[in-house]
Amino acid sequence: MPDDTASEVSSINDESEHLRMVEALLFATDQPLSVEDIKERLPDDADVEAQIETIRRLYSGRGVNLVNAAGRWYFRTAPDLSFLLRKEVEDTRKLSRAGVETLAIIAYHQPVTRAEIEELRGVGLWRGTLDILLEAGWIKPMGRRRTPGRPVTYGTTPEFLVHFGLESVEDLPGVDELKAAGLLDSVDQALGRMQKEMAAAEKERLEKKAQLEMEIAAETMADEGEEE
Amino acid sequence: MPDDTASEVSSINDESEHLRMVEALLFATDQPLSVEDIKERLPDDADVEAQIETIRRLYSGRGVNLVNAAGRWYFRTAPDLSFLLRKEVEDTRKLSRAGVETLAIIAYHQPVTRAEIEELRGVGLWRGTLDILLEAGWIKPMGRRRTPGRPVTYGTTPEFLVHFGLESVEDLPGVDELKAAGLLDSVDQALGRMQKEMAAAEKERLEKKAQLEMEIAAETMADEGEEE
Amino acid sequence: MSDQLLEGELDFPEINDLDEDQRLVLSIEGFEGPLDVLLILARAQKVDLAQISILELVEQYLVFITQARGLRLELAADYLVMAAWLAYLKSRLLLPDEEDEEGESAEEMAARLQLQLQRLVAMREAGAQLMSRNRVGRDVFMRGAPEGIRILRKSAYDVTLYELLKGYSEQRLRASIGHLTIQPRPVYSLDEALHRLSRLIGKALDWTVLSEFLPADTRDPQYRKSAVASMFLAGLELAREGKAEIRQMEAFGPLYLRRRERTEEGQKG
Q1: Domain shared by A116 and A63, yes or no
Q2: Whole-angstrom Cα distance, residue C89 to residue C187?
């Protein structure tokens, strides 16, 4: 559809009018919008999902793209233009190394308790670390672990996904590889698995040994038979 | 230019790349940009005027338009769609500190009566505070305490949980956990703040008193004038 | 190897040129805990973490701790706890495994350490990848001047969870200060004790236990404590002035007091 005639088409075509509405809403909002948020504003017969998909394709190669985080849609500038836009503003909330590590642990291991974070890092958590992540709006309490003391668990927020340009925590960089390598399991779980594997290997070794001995015994008997 | 092929074109065509840049700049800016503003950011060989004109045409029939005011360019929702935005634009206000604290106490101690809130906060509750929280839909009356006077108890609503992204009020970290997260200041800091607050309150009291005295003096004078 | 590591990676010789105060600061800021030190040491082995020699690593860590203490670096308890655990692991690794040993075997302990290090490395790398993504407000941007529609948050008030938690924390803290009261304690003053003791010591002829001089009514244990303390101080004071002598037969045994004769003192002097 050539753009020059878009306004003509829109006036006769309902769908094109719905597209304009969705586009306007997504442009005007200061927060990501869910499909429901948009549906509430549009006529009942509008196919919001289809319009969103059209807009997503329409903008996919442009200076501004439509992206999704935690099921909510928003426009943002294209990542490859960051060289043009990058702001070297002094990052007052520059995260410390401990902060980055703690955020990564919460993101990849969520829901996770404070004690579990400390165990993974092998060092006590400085008081301000969780505070800074909470204040940034990147983490939140998720529930309580059913262990003595019922400690609060932490996880990431939709704001975290938006900030790091992720659709969901499933899209965290390298998460599949880490999962496959068992690196997201606790040390205890991994140890248990190792012990099982070792036990299985030992069992196999013993079975092979027994098998071998039986074969040798059979051969010896055969040899003896030949000798007779 | 059909939009579907925009991404292909952009990769081979400088002009299309310049168009993306101008589009991103105009999208990300928080104030209208002049042609010179944009030229500063773009490669020297870019024909900024032509790109702006292309973008203006591209968006002319769409949900968002590129418009010019006093020689500066900016994106704006198409005037015929502004009803979409106007409908529910609400001025969000900051909740007062008393409001935040009262809400927090209700969340942590529910069901809780007004008298209990006052006791926990150590200060009287201004009448409007509960009204504001009720109106915001974050708290609701839960029932009556079986004590003399059968006072009403308050608790939080499902909307409260939605707003704060919580699954249940059980998820709120306890005092020890807040302290561990760095959310509780040292006693010294808190004392310092208290002293400041008390000084401010005292100042206000004195000012009010002075004001009152002036008024009384004025009235007295007026009375005396009348008497004369 | 560990020497080279300390000099190479951690630049300790340069630290030696610094003032002692500066050294202390560096020691704490350089590392993110004992596992961090172990990882740096492990990297020096230049093999995959899965192939690392745990025994070698343990020895390097223990050397590091010894050197750090030699430089009088202030080490947090975490580092020393790890050192103790590793020393135990080392002894277990060197001694032949006993079949009926309770708890984890040395191999399991070593595997535990290895797994822990692998996990920390994984999270470090994940964190670095996360931070290098195109981030909103730095690399990519939302609409700079959104006209704003409020359909996500219909509430008229804008409060974040952080503000709510902070609000609760602050008011709990204020409440804890507000309720602090110090109860008045019954006190027997030093002046009273001095007055009473100087009066009574003249009447007592020979060595007398200190408690004999206490005021009549000492049923309240708090008051009695205070009276004993004041009376003891009064005794010391009189002894200092040369008016009394104090004697104790054994540690924590009863204290005896008696009057000191001035004439004696004069003769001795």
Answers
A1: no
A2: 56
Task: Compute the distance between CA of residue B217 and CA of residue A11 in angstroms, rounded to an integer.
Answer: 71
In a domain, B110, yes or no: yes
Residue A69 lies in a domain: yes
B137 and B57 in a common domain: no
Final residue belonging to a domain, choices A51, A84, A117: A84
Residues of C in contact with B194 (CB under 8 A): 174, 177
- Asked if C145 is an interface residue toward chain A (Cβ–Cβ < 8 A), one would say no
Nearest residue in A to B176, CA atom: A151
Q: Which chains touch C (3 or more CB pairs under 8 A)?
A: A, B
- For A16, nearest residue in chain B (alpha carbons): B62
Q: What is the CA radius of gyration of chain C?
A: 34
> Which CATH number belongs to the domain containing residue B37 in this structure?
1.10.10.10
Q: Which of A53, A84, A115 is the last residue of a domain?
A: A84
Q: Which of A40-49, C22-31, C120-129, C169-178 has the lowest mean pLDDT?
A: C22-31
Q: Which domain holds residue A74?
A: 11-84
Residue A132 lies in a domain: yes
Contact B100 C143 (CB under 8 A): no
User: Chain B contacts of C170, Cβ < 8 Å?
Assistant: 101, 184-185, 190
- Cβ proximity of B172 and A154 under 8 Å: no
Do residues A132 and A169 share a domain? Answer: yes
> Exposure of A214 by Cβ count < 10 A (0-12 exposed, 13-18 middle, 19+ buried)?
exposed
B103: left (phi over 0), alpha (psi -120 to 50) or beta: alpha
Could you tell me if residue B6 is inside a domain?
no
What pLDDT digit, counting tens, does each position of C133-185 carry? Answer: 888 877 888 888 777 665 444 556 778 888 888 888 887 777 766 555 667 77
Whether the CB of A110 is below 8 Å from some CB of chain B: the reply is no
How many structural domains comprise chain B? 2
Same domain, B26 and B54: yes
Task: Check B27 against C143: CB less than 8 A apart.
Answer: yes
pTM score, whole prediction: 0.65
Q: Which residues pair with C244 in a beta bridge?
A: C259
**Residue among A4, A60, A84 minimizing CB distance to B24:** A84
